[in-house]
Amino acid sequence: MGSVIDENRQPLLFASANCLPENKIERREDEDDKDLKTRVWIETKKLWHIVGPAIFSRIGTYTMNIITQGFAGHIGEVELAAITISNTVIVGLSFGLILGMASALETLCGQAYGAKKHHMLGIYMQRSWIVITLCCILLLPMYIFATPILKALGQPDDVAELSGLVALWFIPLQFSFAFQFTIQRFLQSQLKTAVIAWISLAVLAIHTAISWLFVYKLNLGIVGAAVALDISWWLLVIGLFIYAACGGCPETWSGFSIQAFSGLWEFFRLSAAAGVMLW
């Protein structure tokens, strides 16, 4: 008898559940839509807080290269071709490899920061400096012998020789990559991205002034344009390091440590794998 009563009640229960007022159903749907929009907006703000300054800094460094090529173009066609080839072919090859090697720091610093091992971020960054600097030394023959390499690739003699000269002056630029890329990832893992954008903006303005001074006022020609780019990239390194080491990252930077020289081989293997994947 009880089962009969239960069976008779079930349709009534379903009917009462399905007979909610339409205004309440619409209200629930509106609340769900508002909750979804709120969550999307919050996540979007968090995302752009990280990627926005990173995008701006990358655009700033790319713009510095464009400015350098623009000043070289005012000197002459051969100079424009030389600095473009040196920046695109010679520097571009090392740029991609070093950027990829530095990207390994994102994983290590992110894990250490999430595990609250804050002091390890600075040690990982110093290990990355050592490994990537050694890699830059191994890449030096590409800069030193740029002229015969470009001639073998079919470039005209005058362009290849001037490109080789510019490549020699770009050697300091290559070593700046080892520090600038790693410090950026060190700061990004701590969500300290705004300082990267502000420093990039300041250096971009300084680079324009230095290029104008060296090329037009001091008449240093294409060498002056290359040196201006070297100085600007190292100013980025100095600015980011001053922020990180002088109070900007008190938990993650405790000074230079001898621990940075331990585990270099494992660190090299991880960095090399990341560099080859991006390269």
From TrEMBL:
Keywords: Membrane, Transmembrane, Transmembrane helix. It comes from the Eukaryota. Pfam families: MatE (PF01554). The chain crosses the membrane at residues 47-68, 80-108, 129-150, 162-183, 195-216, 222-246. The keyword Transmembrane helix applies. PANTHER family: MULTIDRUG RESISTANCE PROTEIN. Belongs to the multi antimicrobial extrusion (MATE) (TC 2.A.66.1) family. This is Uncharacterized protein. It comes from Solanum tuberosum. The lineage of its organism: Eukaryota, Viridiplantae, Streptophyta, Embryophyta, Tracheophyta.
